[in-house]
Amino acid sequence: MPSFTVRPRHPHGRHARAVDEPTAEAAAIAYLEDYGGDPDEDDAVAVVVRDADTGREQCFRVDLNTGETAPCAT
Fold it and tell me: Are 40 and 46 within 8 A, CB to CB?
């Protein structure tokens, strides 16, 4: 199973955790289920997911009410 490192997107997001999930989106949700986060005004949390094998980073916003995951806006 792929391994990812997930951390909050905010500037002080130093609390990264290793997460083993099949996709980056699943890793983002698993991180928030285990460690929570500080929601913004839309009850969503932005996290950065780094693929341990490739080093590729992706940012996702996860709606805490629905679990819906979408790429972060730039």
Answer: yes
pLDDT average per 10 residues of sequence, the chain (74 residues): 88 80 94 79 88 95 90 82
Range of the domain at 15: 3-71
Measured distance CA(49)–CA(58) in Å, rounded: 5
d(CA 4, CA 49): 6
Total-model pTM:
0.85
Tally of domains within the chain: 1
DSSP symbol at 56: -
